[in-house]
Structure formats: structure tokens, C-alpha cells
Amino acid sequence: VQLVESGGGSVHSGESLRLSCLISGDKYNWDCMGWFRRAPGKEREGVAVIERDGATKYADSVKGRFTISQDNAKRTLYLQMNSLKPEDTAMYYCASESPSCSLGDYSGGYYAWSGQGTQVTVSS
């Protein structure tokens, strides 16, 4: 299984980015997938989770600004990020299913596979 993120970049406060995560390999139809981020000097933070039935969960820090979605035909996971803030600056990673499909799982590193990450930098 390989997960490859793309779409990161440098933007100003209030702007938007859409991250993509292309999944290849034998496994794809997981119960859930998620995005987490890691900023220098900060703990890993689970940002968003999407379950097989389309249910979503978001960290309070991004709720109302970020949207997680997936396109099964393209085997791609997305994270639409609007109204970006400097505190959103981090390396963003997509990850495969976790034991309980919770944000806490992704914060704690409880997933089988993740990508190499894509950097998001937001300046004020």
C-alpha cells in the first residue's frame, strides 16, 4: 500500500488549499481514512476523519473551515482547507484506517499506513 499526498504550498491568511492523497496497492476499501498534521514543536494532531458511510469528524481547530472527502473511483482522499490561518502551518499526512476511526487514533499514530506528507505554510 502506498499513500502519496500532494497539493501543499505557501499561502496567505484567508486563502485556500486542497490536499489530495492518492492510494495505490491492494487495499483501499477501509472502514475509514484520515488526515493528521505535525507542526514543529507540537504534537501530532488528528485533523479529519471520513468513514466508509461518509460520516466525518473534525478537530475543533478546523471545524467549519476544512472538509474531508473521498473519490473511490479515483482512489483519492481530499482535504479542502479554507480560511487558512498561520496556526494551520504544518506537514499534513493522510493515513489509512485506524482501530476506532477516531481523531484520537490519528493523533496517537494508531494507523497502518501514511504518506510522506505535504507541507502547508500560511503567512499572515
Summarize the structure in short.
5% of the residues lie in helices and 47% in strands. It has one helix spanning 103-108; strands at 2-6, 9-12, 17-24, 32-38, 45-51, 56-58, 66-71, 76-81, 90-95, 118-123.
Draw up the topology in text.
Blueprint: E1 2-6, E2 9-12, E3 17-24, E4 32-38, E5 45-51, E6 56-58, E7 66-71, E8 76-81, E9 90-95, H1 103-108, E10 118-123
Description of the structure:
The protein contains one helix and ten strands; from the N terminus they run βββββββββαβ. The chain has one helix spanning 103-108; strands at residues 2-6, 9-12, 17-24, 32-38, 45-51, 56-58, 66-71, 76-81, 90-95, 118-123. The strands form two sheets. A six-stranded mixed sheet has the order 2-10-9-4-5-6. Strands 1-3-8-7 form a four-stranded antiparallel sheet, with no helix packed on it. Strand 4 (32-38) and strand 5 form a beta hairpin. The protein is globular, with a radius of gyration of 13 Å. The chain starts with a strand and ends with a strand.
Q: What structural class results from the helix and strand content?
A: mainly beta
Largest sheet: 6 strands, mixed
The share of residues in extended strands comes to over 45%
- Average pLDDT, rounded to a whole number, is 95
Radius of gyration: 13 Å
Written as H for each helix and E for each strand, in order along the chain, the element string is EEEEEEEEEHE
- The global form is globular
User: What's the total helix number?
Assistant: 1
N-to-C terminal Cα separation, in Å?
Answer: 37 Å
Low-confidence stretches: none
Summarize the amount of helix as a percent range.
under 10%
| Counted beta strands | 10
Q: Taking strands numbered 1, 2, ... along the chain, how are they ordered across the largest sheet?
A: 2-10-9-4-5-6
